[in-house]
Each structure stands twice: as C-alpha cells, then as structure tokens.
Design a protein that fits this description.
The complex is a heterodimer of chains A (247) and B (306). Chain A is an alpha/beta fold and 247 residues long. Chain A is built from nine helices and ten strands. In chain A, helix 4 crosses helix 5 and helix 6 packs parallel to helix 7. Chain B is globular. The chains are: A alpha/beta (247), B mainly alpha (306). Bound molecules: adenosine-5'-triphosphate and magnesium ion.
Chain lengths: 247, 306
C-alpha cells in the first residue's frame, strides 16, 4: 500500500483554480522534492494533503484511507514564519505542543508523551537546548525544533514546507542529511523547496509542479531542460537551466 | 493613613462596602491577569477594547431596568465576542475598522439608553471610572463564581490555547477545533472584562487586562511563571491601589491602573533579562571585565550576550 496517493486532485482557492489534475504517489523510504515557482501551488498541495482545505475534485489517500486532520499519520513542518517565535516557551514545550491533539482535551501529557518529546529532540540533536526559550534560537535550530515537533507524533509521512529557506549552506546540508536519514528509516518525506542544488543532492525523486505535475522522476531522469522551462516559465538562456545542466 | 488604619477600616462594620470592594477588585484583577496573558501573547488587545465598549449598552439596559449590571454587560459582551470571532475567521476582512465602527456605535447607544434613566449622571461616571460603593452582595457572588469558572476553563484548555497561539495551521492539522477554541477564549476575555467593570470602570478595564500581563512578560521567558506573575501583579496592584485610593480619596479605578503601570515601568527598566537598565549594567560589567587580560574573543561574547 502506498504511504500517500493523490489522485486527480483539483483545488480552488478564492474561486480561482490553483491545482488541476494533480497525481502523485509516495512510498515509505522516499525523500521527494517538490519544486515549482512562487504561486505554483506547493503549499496548497501540502494543505490539501493535510485535509486543511477541501478539494474540488479528486482525493488524497493516506495509507489507503482518506486524509483527516488529527487522524492520519502525517507530520507537518510549516514554513518558519508561520510560528510565533516570540512566545515565552521552551524548546521541549514546543515539541510537546505537537502532541496536543494526541494527548486529548482535559488531559495532561503523560510519560509516553514526554518520552516521544525526548526521542524527537535526540533525533534532531537538540537535546542539549531543550530548556532554551525558542526566541533565542538561530534559524537552523528553529527549523529543527519544528521538525522535532512534527516527529513527536512519530509520523510515517512527513511534509516539509521550504525547510531550507533563509539558511546557510552548512545548515542546509545538515538538515538535508537529517531528512535523508528520516526517509531511510522508513518514512515517506515530501518537501517543497526553492533550493535546486540541495534538492538534487538529497532527494530520491523530484516532482516539478506548476498548477499540475509537470514532471516526476529521479534527479538524473530530469535532464530534459524543456520540462524545467515549462515549470518555471523561463527561457533557454536562464541561469536556472545552467544549474540544471551542471548538477 | 497607615496600613494598620486601612485594615481597621476594612474590619469596621460601618464600612462594610470596603472589604466588598477589595474582594471585587482583587478577584477581577487576578482573573484579568491570567486571561490577559493570552491577550498579550496573541496580540489581541483590540478584542478587550472592543468588548469593553460593547458591554456598555448591556449595562445601560440593566441599569434602566434595575437588573444585574454584571449580567447585562455579560450578555452584550458575549454577543459581541461571538461576532468578532466569527468575522475574524475570515482573514481577508480587516476586523479592526469594523470593530471601530460598531463598537463606538454601541457605546453611543449605551449613553443614549442610560440618559433615559433619572439621575444618570452619577451612574454614568460610576460606569466609566469605577466605584467602590454600592456593590450588591449578589454581584459579589456572581463575580466570584464567574471568576472561578474562567480560571477553571483556562486550566482545562491551557495546552490547546497555547497550541493555537503558537501555530494555527499546525493546530488545525492536529485536529484541534480552532474555531471553537477562539470562541471560548474570546468569551473568557469578555467575562473577565465584565466582572472588572464595577470597580475599575469601563474606560480603564483594558489596562487591567493588558498591563499586569505585559509586565509579567518582561519579567520572564516562561509561560507558566508569566501566568502566575500576572495575576500576582494585578492582585497586588488592586490591593495597593485601593489602599491609596481610600487613604488619599482618589478615584479607585485610576489609582489601581496607575499602580499596575508603575509595576510595568519598573519591569521595563529593571527586569532580570530584558530590562533597559539591566542590559546597560551588564554591558558595563562586560566592559570592566574586558579591561583585564581577557582575550578578545570573550569580549565579543560578553557584548553579544546583551
Ligand atoms: N487563501 C487563499 N485564497 C485565494 N488564493 C490563494 C490563497 N492562498 C493562496 N492562493 C493562491 O494560490 C496559488 C498557490 O499558492 P501557494 O501558496 O500554494 O503557492 P506556493 O507554490 O507555495 O508558492 P511559494 O513558493 O511562494 O510559497 C497562488 O496563486 C496564490 O495566489
Ligand atoms: Mg509556499
């Protein structure tokens, strides 16, 4: 059974078509990079997978069943600016907040919850900073906090929205390695990014999206510059294509 | 007047309204301090302001028909909070101008209604600026009971409120009922405002909600500590404010708010980590240390710690 199966997905936002006929499959162990220009619908696709927006047509199956908030085994790592970083709260409390839905109304987090928090923090190597207020972290550390928060639910599918944006190269590499090993442990990982080099480097598969899936294949299979031109709407002389040919 | 005289007066049966006023002021400040933490952290001070305006017609109607002011205010306030919650779900609508229009209108309506009651001038002043006399026992119990319910709900839903504050989208994806949590929070803010109206008054109640929580935020980076400090600051300000008001014959609401503001200013200047003078002082210390044989790199670290 597929970890994630998206069939003929159509999504409208504000009365305008945003996604049309999107078809995408993910298996456990894959790290898939979702590439596309600004406004291509990458974030919208992630939100549709999480069932935060109701699609106009088509369906999203998570491990064979329709996606449902709080029920499906999906971990979500939104863009860093979605989070209120000036909140007076420690790293471990933020990671614990990822389990709020699981703990349930009128209940307090128990031993199992704290154990999951500890494991998630170890996984992203933030255990040493667990009591630090989140406002006092660097961009790379913040990104790892958000990943740990998603991991606290022990998800089998991980969705990451632009995890590399605004980070320097060493930090990107560190995170890229982390995502690769999270996938290698048997999770299905889907991440949007604008970082072509990092995506080519660490992803097992790339999906080019612009309103619909333009191309889908292993990095070495996407040497045809025509699909890149179509996805990003650039001309043959674009530096983007030089980059594609180089890697 | 000395503190001992104040306590003697508190126990004086002829001044029975004084302990009642103290109980009201302290209870409402404590509740406002706790709820205010969410208000400050979510940056939703405008809701407090909106509600404070909107309860006025409710209170005016209650006054004209001689009903419970707390109840009248609560009904009008909760209705407003629900409307705001519903409107603010649609993030494309700019709610602040909407609130500006409707709530000043509500306030105006309140003034018109209350002007129909004989001898309204005195009562109007009481609503606007608060008073310590004329609190019926019934309201004392109502405020106490409501306060307990508010604190109970905060305790029960704290982790959900925090999750929504941190990240709405993530909370939705976890299956939390974000819309209903917003409604409950708005209603809690409204009730906190309503129970504080009697002593503090309509105009100043926003300060009771914001100032202690903002001061507490300056003093700590831990939410749990903040939510204990804010009610402590609020309750303490109420006690000291009432004492000063009684001793020097000052308006009670204004005095309480000024005491809380003094605490806020003191926190702003001397808070352990984020205070203005504290940072200066640390910088001076770092400079002094760096004058010795400290390697350059450590100086940089000392400077960076500001
Ligand atoms: N709430 C909304 N209402 C209406 N249209 C929206 C809404 N959110 C996004 N859109 C539109 O949907 C399209 C896709 O947006 P989306 O955020 O998914 O793009 P993206 O690929 O994530 O872009 P970026 O790289 O800039 O993050 C855009 O054209 C955007 O204008
Ligand atoms: Mg996006």
């Amino acid at each position: 059974m597929r970890a994630l199966a998206i069939e003929q997905l159509d999504v409208d936002l504000g009365g305008r078509p945003v996604l049309r006929g999107v078809r995408l499959h993910l298996d456990a162990g894959e790290l898939v990079g979702l590439l596309g220009p600004n406004g291509a619908g990458k974030t919208t696709l992630l939100r549709a997978i999480l069932a935060l927006i109701r699609p106009r047509g088509g369906r999203v199956l998570v491990e064979g069943r329709p996606s449902r908030p709080g029920r499906s085994a999906i971990g979500y790592v939104p863009q860093r600016h979605e989070f209120t970083w000036d909140f007076p709260i420690s790293v471990e409390q933020v990671v614990l907040s990822g389990r709020t839905g699981r703990v349930g109304l009128l209940r307090r987090p128990g031993v199992a919850d704290w154990r999951a928090v500890g494991e998630a923090l170890d996984r992203v190597q933030l255990a040493a900073l667990r009591r630090r207020p989140v406002g006092e972290l660097s961009g790379g550390q913040r990104q790892r906090v958000l990943v740990a928060r998603a991991l606290a639910l022990a998800p089998r599918i991980l969705l990451l929205d632009e995890p590399f944006t605004g980070l320097d190269m060493p930090t990107q590499e560190l995170l890229g390695d982390l995502f690769a090993s999270l996938a290698a442990e048997g999770r299905a990982v889907l991440m949007t990014t604008h970082d072509l080099v990092a995506a080519m480097e660490s992803c097992t598969r790339l999906v080019l999206l612009n309103r619909t899936v333009v191309a889908d294949g292993r990095p070495e299979e996407l040497q045809d510059v025509e699909v890149w031109m179509r996805t990003f709407g650039v001309s043959e002389t674009s530096p983007l294509l030089k980059l594609v040919r180089a890697v | 007047m000395s503190i001992t005289d104040f306590f003697t007066d508190l126990l004086n049966p002829d001044l029975a309204f004084l302990p009642k006023a103290l109980a009201m002021a302290v209870m409402s400040s404590v509740v406002c301090g706790v709820v205010g933490c969410y208000v400050v952290l979510r940056g939703m001070a405008f809701i407090g302001d909106a509600v404070a305006h909107a309860v006025f017609p409710g209170i005016a109607v209650a006054f004209v028909f001689q009903g419970s002011l707390v109840l009248g205010g609560a009904v009008a306030g909760v209705a407003t909070a629900l409307l705001i919650a519903i409107f603010s779900q649609n993030r494309r609508v700019k709610e602040d101008s909407l609130i500006g229009v409707f709530l000043v209108a509500a306030f105006a309506l309140g003034i018109v209604i209350i002007s129909q009651a004989p001898g309204y001038a005195g009562s109007l002043q009481q609503f606007l600026f608060g008073a310590i006399t004329g609190i019926p026992d019934r309201d004392l119990y109502l405020v106490g009971g409501t306060g307990l319910v508010i604190l109970g709900l905060v305790l029960a839903l704290h982790k959900e409120f925090v999750a929504v504050c941190l990240d709405r989208e993530m909370s939705r994806s976890m299956g939390l009922p974000v819309f209903w949590l917003d409604i409950v929070l708005y209603v809690l803010v409204t009730l906190a405002v309503v129970i504080s109206l009697q002593t503090i008054g309509n105009i100043l109640v926003l300060a009771l909600l914001i100032t202690p929580a903002a001061a507490a935020r300056l003093l700590t980076d831990r939410l749990g500590v903040m939510m204990l400090l804010a009610p402590a600051i609020g309750g303490g300000s109420a006690l000291i404010g009432l004492y000063l008001s009684w001793s020097y014959d000052l308006p009670v609401g204004g005095t309480i708010v000024l005491v809380a503001t003094a605490v806020f200013l003191a926190s702003w200047l001397w808070a352990p980590r984020h205070g203005l003078f504290t940072k200066r002082w640390r910088a001076v210390r770092a400079d002094e240390r760096s004058e010795g044989a400290v390697p350059k790199r450590e100086v940089a670290v000392g400077g960076g710690a500001q």
